[in-house]
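Hi support team,

I've been running sequence recovery on a batch of backbones for a student project. Most finish fine, but this one hangs at about 90% for roughly twenty minutes before it completes. I'm not sure whether the input is malformed or the queue is just slow. I've pasted the structure tokens below so you can try to reproduce it. Let me know if you need the job ID as well.

Thanks,
M.K.
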């Protein structure tokens, strides 16, 4: 059963029981991605790593590309 079919079945059941319809698939995707990103940033801060931004990516790539050279800043 696809997501759309499951949603239509749930909406039909809710209507027949007089309950509010469930949210459509994908309705809260942006909120979930934001919360996931915030959680990753929070865990990075707790681990003592930079929380976000290009500096973090650049630092990780620099360590991978130049393992012997120590990066500063």
């Amino acid at each position: 059963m696809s997501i759309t079919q499951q949603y239509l079945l749930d909406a039909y059941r809710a209507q027949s029981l007089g309950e509010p319809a469930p949210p459509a698939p994908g309705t809260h995707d942006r909120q979930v991605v934001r919360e996931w990103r915030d959680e990753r940033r929070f865990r990075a801060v707790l681990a003592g790593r930079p929380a976000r931004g290009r500096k973090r990516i650049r630092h990780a790539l620099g360590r991978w590309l130049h393992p012997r050279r120590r990066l500063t800043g």
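--
Follow-up from support: It reproduced on our side and the slowdown came from queue contention, not your input. The first helix runs from residue 3 to 17. No action needed from you.
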